[in-house]
Amino acid sequence: MITDDLLQLITAGIDGELTPLESRRLSRLLNSSAEARAIHSKLQADRNKLQALPRIAPPPELQSRVMARIASLTPVPSRLTKLPPRPNTSPKAEPARKSLPFAPKSPRWVPVAIAASLLLCVTTGSFLFFNQKNPQQTVRSTARAPLGNHSGASDPAWAKWLPAESAPRPSAPIGRDLPPVFEHTIVRKDTPVGPAPVVIAIAPTPRAVYDIFTHQPLPETHFETVEVRIPFLKLVADFDREDTREQLAKELNQPTSYRIDLFTRNPVRAVELFREASKAAGVNLLIDANTLTQLQKRTANASVIYTESLTAEEIAALIGKLNAEDAKVSPHVFDMLHALPASPHDASDLKGIFGIDPGLFKRPADKVNEKSERTPDPSKPLSAGTADQIVKSVLSGPTKPGEKPAVLLMWNVAQGRPIPQANSAELKQFLAKRGDRKANAVPVIIVIRPGNG
Amino acid sequence: MSDDDRQLIAECLGGQRDAFGVLVTRYQARLYNAAIRLVDNPEDAADVVQDAFLNAFQSLHSFKGDAEFFTWLYRIAFNTAISLKRKKRAAVSLDAVGPDGGIDPDDPSEYVKPGLALERSEDERQLQDAMVRLSHEHREVLVLKDIEGMRYEDIAEILKVPIGTIRSRLHRARLELRELLQPTETDTDPENEEHS
C-alpha cells in the first residue's frame, strides 16, 4: 500500500529534486514494491510526454509588434517626479490672510452664504420700498406736514424738496396724531397708516368634477391580456436530480416549440461535452465542421442545436447526461439552463440559418388521421397516395427506426442577423434524416452561448 | 544574471530602446512557448508575450538585478497570463494545429518536427486536452518544470511562493494529470470521432 508520503517521494523523484538520502529511500521503495514501480513508471511517462511536446515558435512579426508598441510609449515619469502644484486651490497657494489668533478658519461656503444673504436683503428691501408706491398710500402721504409739524399745512421750507411737477393732492382725512409721510419715506412698522384697501379676489370657476356616480360612463377600453410565463431557469448542475429533470419535462410538455439556452464559460468545450452527452442519450448529433472551426478560432462563440425527434422526457434526460459529462471536468463548463417557448423571432432566425423553414411551429399530423393511415381497411384498394408513401419510405434516406437526429450549427444572431449555413453538409444530412415528426416530439432549439452573449 | 543581459538593460535604461529589442529577440521564443501552454490560444499567447515585454520595459527601472532577467520576465508573463485568463474566462481547447489534427500551417517553425508531430498528434491532443483541464496552479508548475526545465528554486522565484509549496503543487499536479490521462488510455471506443 502506497502512502501519501511515499507518493510524494515518487513524484519528487520524477521531478529530479531529491536529496541523496531521499534518492536512496526511493531506490529501496522501487526495488521492494511493484505498485510503486508501476506508479513511478506512469508518472515518468507523463513527464516524458510533456517534455516531448514540440516547442511552438512565436509568429515572425511578434518582435516588430513589441518594438512598435514600445516605440509608441511616451516617456514614463519616474517616481521622483513631482506633481505640478494645484492652481490656487490648495491651502498653501492662498494669499496669507490676517486672521485673529484662535479664529477658526472659515469654510469655503461662507462667502457664498454672505453673498446670498446680501442679495436677500437687497431683494427684500426693494420689495418693501416699491411696495409703498401703491395709490392709496401715495394719496395719503404726499404733501403733508413735515415731521413734528402737526398743522397739516404745507411748509414752504419743505416744498423745495418736492418735485416740481407734483401737485398737491387731496389728502385723506387723517388725524393730527399721524406723522407726515412723504412719498419717498419708508413707512415705519409702528406707524399706523390706516386700513389698506380690501381687494376681493374672485376665485376662478371651479373645474368640473367627474363624479363617478353622476358622470357619464367612460368609453369601453379593451385591454389585451398577455399571459406571462416565468421562464424555466436552473443550474445545469442541478440536473443530476430526478425532480429537476421532471420539472423540465413538465415545462416542455406544452403544445409548442421551445428554446433552451445553455450558458457556458467555454463554448468549445461545451460543444464537446454536448457531443458526449448526445452519444450517451442516443442522439445522433451532426456537427457542422465549419462551426467547430469557427469556435476554435474564436470567430464564433455560440452554437445552436436543433432537433425535433425528442420527447420532453428525452430532452430532460439529455440535459441530465450533459450534467454527468460536465461533472467530470473541473472547473465545470456549464452554468445555467434557461428554457422558454420559442418565439416567432427564433423561428425566423432558424429559417435564416437553415435557408428553409424547418417548421419549428409545425404540428405533427392529427392522431385520427394517423391512425387511419396506419391501419387501412384491407377491403379497400390501396390508394395511390398510400402506395407513394410506402415507396418513399423504402427509398428515402437512411432513417433508422428510433434514430434521433440533431444538427449543430453556428449561432451568431447577436450581430443582427443569422448566418446562413444552408450549404452545410451536416445540415443537408440532418434534413434528409429527420423524417416525419412524432406526435409527442418537442421541436427544440438549444443555444450554447457565453453568459454575456 | 549574465553580463550580457546586464549590459543590455543598462543601455536600455540609458535610453537605447534597441537594446531592449535584443532582449526581446533573445527571449521571445521561450516566453511564447511557455505562454501558449498556459493560455492555449496562439493569439492570446502573443498578447501575453507582448504585454509582458511592454510591462518589463516600463518597469525596467525597478528591476534590481538580483535574479535572472528571464526569471523576472517570466514572472511578469505569468501574471499577465493570469490576468488575461481571468478577463476572458475561457480556456479554448488547444487544437491550434487545426481541426484535422495536422500541423498549423501558420506556424511552420523549426521547433515543430513535421514527421514526428504527425505521429504523436493523438498523444499530443490527449495531453493538451488534459492540460486544459488542469487547474491553473497545477498547469503553471508543470509547464515551468517539465516544459521549461526549471528547478524548484527558479519556479519558486517566478511564482513567489516557498519551495515547499512548489514541491507539493507539483506532486498534486502530477497526480491530477495522471487521473485525467487515465480514461484516454483505457478508452478504445472507435466512435469518438464526430458525426460529420
What's the structural blueprint in terms of helices and strands?
The complex is a heterodimer of chains A (453) and B (196).
Chain A (H helix, E strand, L loop, with lengths): L3 H12 L4 H13 L1 H18 L10 H10 L37 H23 L3 H7 L14 H4 L72 E4 L6 H11 L5 E7 L2 H15 L1 E5 L1 H8 L6 E5 L4 H16 L6 E8 L2 H11 L12 H8 L9 H12 L8 E7 L14 H9 L10 E7 L3
Parallel strand pairs in A: 2-7, 3-6
Antiparallel strand pairs in A: 1-5, 2-5, 4-6, 4-7
Chain B lengths: L2 H11 L3 H23 L2 H17 L10 H20 L25 H6 L1 H13 L2 H12 L4 H8 L3 H24 L10
Helix pairs in contact in B: 1-2, 2-3, 2-4, 3-4, 4-8, 6-9, 7-9, 8-9
Judged by helices, strands and strand pairing, the structural class of chain A is: alpha/beta
Q: What's the total number of strands of chain A?
A: 7
Instruction: Examine the secondary-structure arrangement and name the CATH architecture of the largest domain in chain B.
Output: Orthogonal Bundle
CATH superfamily of the largest domain in chain B: RNA polymerase sigma factor, region 2, helix turn helix motif
Structural class of chain B: mainly alpha
Mean pLDDT of chain A: 74
What is the fold named in CATH at topology level of the largest domain in chain B? Rna Polymerase Sigma Factor, Chain: A
Beta-strand percentage range of chain A? 5-15%
What is the count of distinct domains of chain B?
Answer: 2
Given the C-alpha coordinates, what overall shape of chain B results? elongated
Largest interface: A-B, 56 and 67 residues
Low-confidence stretches of chain B: 91-119, 188-196
What is the H/E string of chain B? HHHHHHHHH
Our measurement of the CA-to-CA distance between the termini of chain B, rounded to an integer number of angstroms, reads 54 Å
